[in-house]
TrEMBL record:
Species classification: Bacteria, Pseudomonadati, Pseudomonadota, Gammaproteobacteria, Lysobacterales
Keywords: Membrane, Transmembrane, Transmembrane helix
Protein known as: Poly-beta-1,6-N-acetyl-D-glucosamine biosynthesis protein PgaD
Transmembrane segments: 28-54, 74-96
Superkingdom as given in the UniProt entry: Bacteria
Alphabetical list of InterPro entries matching this protein: PGA_PgaD
Annotated gene: pgaD
One Pfam family per UniProt: PgaD
Length: 161
């Protein structure tokens, strides 16, 4: 009996290509993930409450909701509803723009600048412009009028101290 051992380890718990999973399975695991994140945040609630209380959250609650020791039902309902509406509107606008601009190039293509134009705009020779365009790492030497006069190719950048 001849067995071949694979040198590559495979962990079946890791998903290499999540898009090849069935949509129902991905959705179910998404809900499981959300549930565990919610539980995790629930565990942090006492500490968040303590910090909020120390920073004046109790006073803010009293000013917003308990004016004259009565709870204003309009404010209790209106503020969370406005919060949810604003969040839904923002998400809807983002999704609209994502669908609208997905796969579309919004910028117009520009023609490449010729080396002659680059040399003219820099106030340098065509040879200097060609060296700048061709070099990966260059040092540019300039005259007293800040015009490029020479290029040294392959030089390393000097770090400031």
């Amino acid at each position: 009996m001849n067995t071949v051992k694979s040198t590559r380890r495979f962990d079946s718990r890791l998903i290499q290509k999540p898009r090849q999973q069935p949509r129902l399975q991905r959705t179910a695991w998404g809900f499981v993930t959300i549930a565990f994140w919610a539980f995790y945040f629930y565990l942090w609630a006492p500490l968040v409450t303590l910090i909020s209380w120390l920073l004046g959250g109790r006073m803010a609650w009293a000013q917003l909701y308990e004016q004259k020791q009565t709870v204003d039902p309009f404010v209790v309902i209106a503020l969370p509803v406005m919060l949810v509406c604003c969040a839904a509107l923002l998400i809807a606008w983002a999704e609209y723009n994502r669908m609208r601009f997905t796969g579309k190039e919004r910028r117009l293509p520009h023609d490449d600048v010729t080396r002659e134009e680059m040399a003219h705009d820099l106030g340098a020779s065509v040879a200097v412009a060609a060296s700048l365009a061709d070099g990966k790492s260059v040092t540019l030497h300039m005259d007293e009028h800040a015009r490029p006069v020479r290029v040294t190719a392959g030089a390393l950048a000097v770090a400031y101290r």
